[in-house]
Specification:
Elements lengths: L4 H19 L4 H18 L14 E4 L5 H11 L6 H5 L28 H20 L8 E5 L1 H5 L1 H13 L4 E7 L2 E2 L2 E2 L8 H7 L3 E6 L3 H12 L5 E6 L22 H10 L11 H10 L4 H12 L4 H9 L5 H15 L3 E2 H15 L3 E5 L3 H4 L18 E3 L4 H14 L3 E7 L7 H10 L4 E5 L17 H6 L5 E3 L4 H13 L4 E4 L4 E2 L16 E4 L7 E5 L2 H15 L4 E5 L3 H5 L3 H8 L4 E4 L16 E3 L10 H7 L4 H12 L1
Helix pairs in contact: 1-2, 1-3, 1-10, 2-3, 2-9, 5-7, 5-17, 7-17, 14-15, 14-20, 15-20, 17-18, 21-25
Bound molecules: thiamine diphosphate and magnesium ion.
Length: 652
């Protein structure tokens, strides 16, 4: 057996095919087609050390066409990454393995979870951007690596890729190298049935360098990758390949995309590749050699560690790359006091800006932006400075009108590490980035989504711009914590909680002014998710439950009712999920046993777990209406008078 990269590619092909055959499930097409690309990249170019999969200054790799997972796992096995073994390859796609259907970030050596096509390339742009922003702050000595991304035809058909390509070109992310598995085949047949676009021209139009190579010829791949190393702009390498390369009768056909080869075809593949060993057997000497390949970067890693240890700001750097944030309560103490004293009537997007300003002043690695709504989302502050092409010293990102890529780029930055990224748009357009919010939540990527214009309170822009079901739709995403604060104090507390939580979080903020309701800031009450904002005076008759702008309506209604001798409590529930995380006993203490009226300028769904027979929900379960906000609220019965009316009926 030869100890060289062509043999590595052969081994990858056979291992991947055997892995899929054993599972009787998986995608041999891309795995067989990209084996040479992967062998050359990992064997000669990639900066990494399999002994430390999380080395911060390693090159990042994203397999955006995540269906090539069998290739990924075979590669990680040959390189000697932790957890990867023959037993794992044999457990491909089985429960509780490290070899799940599509690559997941929990597998050492996998830099991003992929499978939803197109998100990977956009996340790669985010990683390459993170590298640039960190390098601008810390210098090449500490941060200097590339981002590689494998894509298939599918990723490039997805619209998100175009958004991401444009931004990568604009920013001149010259350390981003995309390898395109150009095989002209997708599931349904030839790519021609669904596109006639000249893809290289697409990339060139956005300022990329485009190189072409024979993706099945290692010399050709090497030449292209070598040229890409010194690029002045991001690089697409158009790798001409054949899907299922090596499969004697199925290669070149969509049939090989997503089902096992079958015994006969597999035998034919091995014969063609001159492979003489039993399934899953790799001669130990060869494996030792590939393990050495996997440790090519060890010396460089040690040198980097020394440079970090000798750096004057070593501690700060280490804290930031560990994802540690400074004392948030300390940073926000003054502004909370100011809110308490001044009791402003302030849109929560505006109080958010004031809070964000303090955070950006104190947290140098907090970065973010908006999809062309900086002036509306108010996520750009006095302490924001926009990044520019070739100048990444800023902390603000103009994403343009590209919500989907913004989501993926933000996830990419978060998963890269070293930054605390946020991104913002109108709440209703969270729909445009829902797939990325979902994938980020799946990875538990630490992102902060800032959604403003949170309800029919948007007013005149009308029902297309008025979120109704967005709140419950996002509440349904596991791991994601949404905060819909009722006043400026809750806004500050929500930021504190959101940043402290080791989960992706979203702030949902109003366009319209909200009165300051809180009279006390000693304890962060948002921490409980829901709490008694207005405690009953003597004997509670009714509990009003709301979040965001509806809380002030509830408080006014409660004041009115108590003047008439009806004792009403008000529960503010800024974070539904944190409340759901509370023990039932605590929940019941807050919600009380008396009738509950839930008031919500959106869908009713999330209240049903708490709604008993004697309770009621005042909500909006149709689309909104165009008109001044106050009138739209009145039209839907979201008024103090109506809350009072319903309350009285309920008590009777
Ligand atoms: C967003 C999204 N839509 C659809 C799919 C289902 N899907 C998986 S692979 C694939 C075809 C991809 O074609 P290509 O990238 O050319 O891969 P190849 O067949 O060449 O391996 C599709 C439609 C998906 N994974 N993600
Ligand atoms: Mg294809």
């Amino acid at each position: 057996m030869k100890y060289d990269l062509p043999m590595m590619a052969t081994t990858l092909r056979v291992l991947a095919a055997d892995t899929i055959e054993k599972a009787n499930s998986g995608h041999p097409g891309a795995a067989l087609g990209m084996a040479d690309m992967a062998a050359v990249l990992y064997g000669q170019f990639l900066k990494f050390d399999a002994d430390d999969a999380n080395w911060f200054d390693r090159d990042r790799v994203i397999f955006s066409n995540g269906h090539a997972s069998a290739l990924v796992y075979s590669l990680l096995y040959l390189m000697g990454f932790d957890k990867m073994s023959v037993a794992q390859l044999q457990s491909f796609r089985q429960l509780d393995s490290f070899t799940s259907g599509h690559p997941e970030i929990t597998t050492p050596g996998v830099d991003f979870s992929t499978g939803p096509l197109g998100q990977g390339i956009a996340a790669a742009v985010g990683m390459a951007l993170a590298e640039k922003m960190l390098a601008a702050r810390w210098g090449d000595d500490l941060v200097n690596h590339k981002t590689y991304c494998f894509v298939g035809d599918g990723c490039l058909m997805e619209g998100i890729s175009e958004e991401a390509i444009e931004l990568a070109g604009l920013w001149n992310l010259n350390k981003l190298i995309v390898l395109w598995d150009d095989n002209h085949i997708t599931i349904d047949g030839k790519t021609e049935i669904a596109t006639k676009t000249n893809i290289p021209m697409r990339f060139k139009a956005s300022g990329w360098q485009v190189l072409t190579c024979n993706g099945l010829n290692q010399k050709s791949i090497q030449k292209a990758l070598k040229k890409a190393q010194k690029a002045k702009s991001p690089t697409l390498i158009d790798c001409k390949t054949i899907i299922g390369y090596g499969a004697p009768t199925k290669s070149g056909s969509p049939k090989v995309h997503g089902s096992p080869l079958g015994a006969e075809e597999l035998a034919g593949l091995k014969k063609k590749l001159n492979w003489a060993y039993p399934a899953f057997e790799v001669p130990i000497d060869f494996l030792n050699w590939t393990h050495q390949v996997g440790r090519r970067g060890a010396v460089e890693r040690e040198k980097w560690t020394m440079r970090v240890n000798n750096h004057p700001a070593e501690e700060q750097f280490k804290k930031e790359i560990r994802g540690e944030l400074p004392d948030l309560a300390g940073i926000l103490k003054t502004i909370k006091q100011k809110f308490l004293q001044a009791k402003p009537d302030l849109a929560s997007r505006k109080s958010s800006q004031l809070v964000l300003n303090e955070l950006l002043k104190a947290i140098p690695n907090m970065v973010g932006g908006s999809a062309d709504l900086a002036a509306s989302n108010l996520t750009k502050t006095e302490n924001s400075k926009s990044i520019q092409p070739n100048d990444f010293s800023g902390n603000y990102i103009n994403f343009g009108i590209r919500e989907h890529a913004m989501g993926a780029i933000t996830n990419g930055m978060a998963v890269h590490g070293g930054l605390m990224p946020y991104a913002s748009t109108f709440f209703v357009f969270s729909d445009y980035m829902r797939p990325t919010v979902r994938l980020g939540a799946f990875m538990q990527a630490k992102t902060l989504w800032i959604f403003t214009h949170d309800s029919i309170g948007v007013g005149e822009d009308g029902p297309t711009h008025q979120p109704i079901e967005q709140m419950v739709a996002l509440q349904a995403i596991p791991n994601l914590y949404l905060f819909r604060p009722a006043d400026a104090v809750e806004v500050a507390e929500s930021y504190e909680e959101a940043l402290r939580l080791n989960k992706p979080c979203a702030l949902v903020l109003s366009r319209q002014n909200l009165p300051t309701l809180r009279r006390d800031i000693r304890v962060n009450l948002v921490h409980q998710g829901g709490y008694l904002l207005r405690t009953p005076l003597k004997k509670r008759k009714l509990t009003l439950v709301a979040s965001g702008s509806e809380v002030s309506l509830a408080v006014k209604a409660a004041d009115f009712l108590s003047e008439q001798g009806i004792d009403v409590a008000v529960v503010s529930m800024p974070c539904y999920k944190l409340f759901m995380d509370q023990p039932e006993k605590e929940q019941n203490k807050v919600l009380g046993t008396v009738p509950r009226l839930f008031v919500d300028a959106g869908s009713a769904f999330s209240w049903y777990p708490f709604k008993r027979e004697q309770d009621a929900i005042l909500s909006i379960d149709t689309f909104g209406k165009s008109g001044p906000a106050k009138e739209v609220f009145a039209d839907f019965g979201l008024t103090v008078e109506n809350i009072v009316k319903i309350s009285k009926k309920m008590i009777k």
